[in-house]
Amino acid sequence: MTLAVDIIKRGGKRQTEQFMHKKLYTSIVAACLSARTPNGQAEATANLVCEDVIVWLQQRPEVTSHDIRVVTTRCLKKYQPEAAYLYEQHRITI
User: Fold this and answer.
1) By the number of CB atoms within 10 A of the CB, which of 46, 59, 77, 93 ranks highest?
2) Does any domain span residue 85?
3) What is the pTM of this model?
4) What is the pLDDT of residues 72-93, one digit of tens each?
5) Which residues form the domain of 48?
6) Within-domain flag for 5
7) DSSP 21-82
């Protein structure tokens, strides 16, 4: 599914891109699997979280990739807190 929402990439240095459901879905499944969630449950969780994020996106013509990450993390915490932590920390370097 593609919404008419422009995603402003991190730092604003790269071109914007259209929201891609598949990209979000895949990243959520990966976080769930990293948290040792069974495959079927990871896919179900990704579907639920994507639905929540899409509802949030529907009234916004553009958002930052950081906005997407924050909203996705918040939604994922409802279903899989461990996966949400991994999703949130993915780009942070210690």
Assistant:
1) 46
2) yes
3) 0.86
4) 999 999 999 999 999 998 865 4
5) 16-89
6) no
7) HHHHHHHHHHHHHHTT--HHHHHHHHHHHHHHHHHHHTT-SEEEHHHHHHHHHHHHHHH-HH
